[in-house]
Amino acid sequence: MNKHTFSSFNTYAMKVFRGKRVVVDGEIIPATVFVEGGKIVDIQRNIYSQDSNSVELESEEVVDAGDLVLMPGVVDSHVHVNEPGRTAWEGFSTATKAAAVGGITTIVDMPLNSIPSTTSLSSLNIKLDSARGQCYVDVGFWGGVVPGNQDELVPMVNAGVAGFKCFLINSGVEEFQHVTEEDLHIAMKQLVGTESVLLFHAEVDCAGLGQNNTKEETAESADDRKYQTFLESRPDKMEVEAIKLVCKLCLQYKVRCHIVHLSACEALPIIQSARDSGAPLTVETTHHYLNLASENIPDGATYFKCCPPVRNKKNRDLLWKAVMSREIDMVVSDHSPCTSDLKHLDKGDFLAAWGGISSVQFGLSLFWTAGQQYDVTILDLCRCLCENTSKLAGLGSQKGSITVGRDADFVIWDPEKSWSVKEQMIQHKNKLTPYIDTTLKGNVSKTILRGNVVYDEHTGLSEKPFGQLLLDIKFC
Ligand SMILES: [Zn+2]
Asked: Cis peptide before 465, with omega less than 30 degrees from 0?
């Protein structure tokens, strides 16, 4: 008999999570996971039983996943929450409720679109004050690199930001100015030796491209209701040229660098070549680049607009191949909502509309659905959505896998069950999304944060927000 006694655990009640398909150490096996004080304290492999013959459970609380998958909670390292300052676009409460319903147990908030943007220690503290007490999942924070804020970077690292984001092109908001190569040399020198990471929105304005993002600057003949008009304004070359610069700086300073939301597959060989030369460089793509294709975007459907743009089917196919070959390390939502007026749906003007796609709630199912034709496995999903995103954000020793000592953050989901996206299900604040009425495969049954069930498909969200602010960042 494999008896588990709890005599040594007096402070907290032991909780038990078990199932026939538990993701442990790169395998999907029957297992029983013991949780105390929000941490995983023991894992018994190949033991799953509803009777007590194999494991004698004295715990009051047993969550039984049965035939469903029990895996680490999803860590979405690219979410724009926008609070404070643009809370009408999104806020901590609504964004984290959407995350919890989608099987996500940690989001990492982007530094821009909030006012102030997170580019100084004092603005970080303002953001922390606004987030505290209203998060349904855990939240980490990216800082920002903007021209002239180099003296704020190390203090922000010490305060617990996961790293920094910068733009190489107009960010779309006044408070977050883009950097030049000269600014980057200054910032990189500050970051050498910190083990922090610099994230790049990798598009540059080459040969005047990318400037025609307003109606006035568009050729008279172009139809702004056509997605193609917008696509042609932000060609692959803008990403390729930006990524060449990132690779050069990464190799020069050996500061960890990361390319956010890669869209143009043409840049992949450049990234691989820099890595082969020793650049500490990682790259993500998003669920929209892996699910959508420019050929299918209807005229005037500006809720499909984001930067860089969704490209064609051939490009999407190559991005998927790079995900499967591990050339792309991770997949995120880049959830970036706004109020519906900024999407100019009345005119359907792609050039005038705000760029950003909302989808944080659907990431797990989007990845699983689109991945079916590429033979994606649950282990691929854990690697791209849980492990590598955790490591990027300095959370690799706390999150991202079912391992003794880590947080008991889990999602229990049914990979076989299909469902359809309906507006009334959406928890994020503004409901515009390209996925309404889309049928997705993979249904979240329960989301567990540090041992607490924060979402159950039958009873809904927890009453209390259990999420914590993550400032104990350890780069490894
Ligand atoms: Zn973003």
From this structure: no
